[in-house]
Amino acid sequence: MMDRDPIELRPGARVWHGFIDRKGQEALVDDIRRVVAAAPLFRPVTARGRPMSVRMTSAGVYGWVSDRSGYRYETRHPEGMAWPAIPDRVLGIWRAVSGVERAPQCCLVNFYDAGAKMGLHQDRDEADFAMPVVSISLGDDALFRIGGTERGGATKSVWLGSGDVAVLSGEARLAYHGIDRIRPGSSTLLPRGGRINLTLRVVD
Ligand code: MD3
Ligand code: FE
Q1: Of the CATH numbers 2.60.120.590, 1.10.730.10, 2.40.280.10, 3.20.20.220, which one belongs to the domain with range 7-201?
Q2: Which residues line ligand 1 (CB under 6 A)?
């Protein structure tokens, strides 16, 4: 499975390129299809009412939602159902790279079509920043950007490809990060193209 050493973008921010082989990626896509069948993708709107370009859903005890009342973790999908369980294969990747004993409570599923992006932000809605964030990329390549813990500092960029796994921990746990753009058509994993990112977090 893990055929290379990770790249350390900054202390605590590590990327394993090619962590998951093609068969593993296909199995993950099947897992995510089942998650999306139980908890459909929706397009969150910001507190100011602006629709996000990324569509989302979640698995786990908590899911991440955003609407006119703001963003937060919730135990139910906006349509009212509980979130489906985090697939075992996804939990196995968390165990392999997270370095912590606790299990993730949220697997956020982000779907990026050709024009989607995510602005620079911090992940800080969680209670314990000693718990890392683990990210799994599937499908089209994405240009990921990471800065420091203050807005406006220097940033570094790296392309995340299908099967790459990244961990944000330690002093990078509160680093600003985002997705500038995807490279449409760069992967054959998803028949209709696009990118799926799974972001795993311990919430409470
Ligand atoms: C890169 N999602 O949902 S994954 C988010 O690709 C979010 O959809 C982005 O930021 C996405 O909040 C980025 C998060 C991530 C975590 C750790 C990393 C990316 C990383 C560590 C190193 C490099
Ligand atoms: Fe984030």
Answers
A1: 2.60.120.590
A2: 9, 13, 15, 108, 110, 118, 123, 133, 135, 142, 144, 146, 166-168, 177, 179, 197, 199
